[in-house]
Each structure stands twice: as structure tokens, then as C-alpha cells.
Amino acid sequence: MDSVLSSEHVYLPRTVTRSAKILVAGHFGAGKTTLIGSVSEITPLRTEEPITEASVGIDDLKGLPGKTETTVAFDFGRRTLSPHLALYVFGTPGQNRFAPFWEHLFRGALGALILVDTRRLEDSDEVLGLFEERGLPFAVAVNEFDGAPRYPLDEIRQALALEDEVVLTACDARSEASSIHALIALVDYLYRFRRLEHLT
Ligand SMILES: Nc1nc2c(ncn2[C@@H]2O[C@H](COP(=O)(O)OP(=O)(O)OP(=O)(O)O)[C@@H](O)[C@H]2O)c(=O)[nH]1
Ligand SMILES: [Mg+2]
């Protein structure tokens, strides 16, 4: 995130009475770090390292010409979503070799936004399976990359074998408004399933 944030964004408003830890997950290169950079009101913490030759054959860079770095531990940002609710947003690493770190990230998380890329839908199976196994509620957002095929959301739901109740939306992880919209979809879902209580 390039902008220099003013101090009013650094301190939580006094009206905030509730906070929630949320994960942003998804396969390698789905746009997790980008989305957290778009939504965070504090300078996000990133743990990115250059993608090296050691990644050849492991990291599929198809369709990601500008991608030179990958998250090796986690991303962290914060977003006050309403006068009462602040989200602490943790991004997971996209590669299986960093999976041991996931245990720390899962702890205390109320839910997850899982990003998918239509150019590699099948890569999402593993991440979706992990959240289903854990029983951690999640919403799914299609990160609409330029030039990626567009499908109706109900076709994507079918392809990903998502239950009807799972919220499925589309976003552009580079856009603050669009990314916030996806986070709100997750939070609405958490309210609906009483993972989050309405507090004032
Ligand atoms: N065109 C377009 N590019 C995007 C979008 N979201 C992310 N990117 C680009 O796609 C690449 C991957 O984005 P990242 O945010 O690093 O993805 P990630 O999921 O954090 O990747 P890992 O941590 O390596 O798993 C970067 O070069 C981004 O600039 C998007 O919505 N549209
Ligand atoms: Mg990342």
C-alpha cells in the first residue's frame, strides 16, 4: 500500500466494541496479499520473499506475469468495518510448503474469505477442503483477474462443489471498495450463523 496513513487511521475509534480475527486464504497467487493491502487502514505487515529458481515446478506463475514475490508466513492488516466492529485480517501463505504456519493462523479465527482465480479453479480444492475439515465458516470470492475467463457465479459454485449456504461473490482485490464488499459478505454470513454477535 503506497499511501501514508494519517494517525486517525492508526488508532481504533472509541466506538469499536467488537473485534474479529478473519483469515484471507486461497491458492498460490490468488490475490491475498493484494486484497489485504487494499482494505487495511494500517500499513499492512507483509512477509514476502522473492520467488527464486527453487520455485520452478512448484509455483505456477501462469497468468501472473508481474508476480515476483510470495508470502512465506502471513499478511496482517486491520479494517474498521462499522463504528462498532474492527476486523483483524490475516492472510495465509499460498504454498503448501508453508502449511505448518496455518495452525497459528487458525487459532481464534472466526471465519475466512477464500479467494479463487478462474484460471486455476482446481487449485482451490485443497484450501476449501482444509476449511471444511476444520469447520471454520468461510465465504468465497472470485478475484477477477484481467483476461481471466468469466463464468456465472452459479457455475463456479457448481465447479467448486460449494454448499448453497456458502456465500459466493466476485471482487477485484486491487480495489478497496470491491474488497470491502467481499469482506462484508463474509461478515454478514458470520452474523447469520451467529459466529459474530451484534453488539452496540
Ligand atoms: N489484474 C489483477 N491482478 C491482480 C489482482 N489481484 C492480485 N493481482 C496481481 O496478482 C499477483 C498475485 O497477487 P498476490 O496478492 O501476491 O497473491 P497472493 O495470493 O498473496 O500470493 P501468494 O502469497 O504467493 O500465495 C500480483 O502480481 C498482483 O499484483 C486482481 O484482482 N487483478
Ligand atoms: Mg501473498
Automatic annotation (TrEMBL):
Keyword set, alphabetical order: ATP-binding, GTP-binding, Hydrolase, Nucleotide-binding, Receptor
The keyword Cytoplasm is assigned to this record: no
Database matches in Pfam families: ATP_bind_1
An example molecular function term from Gene Ontology annotations: GTP binding
Top-level taxonomic group: Bacteria
Listed Gene3D superfamilies: P-loop containing nucleotide triphosphate hydrolases
Protein family (similarity comment): Belongs to the GPN-loop GTPase family.
Protein's name in the database: ATP-binding protein
Organism in which the protein naturally occurs: Streptomyces griseochromogenes
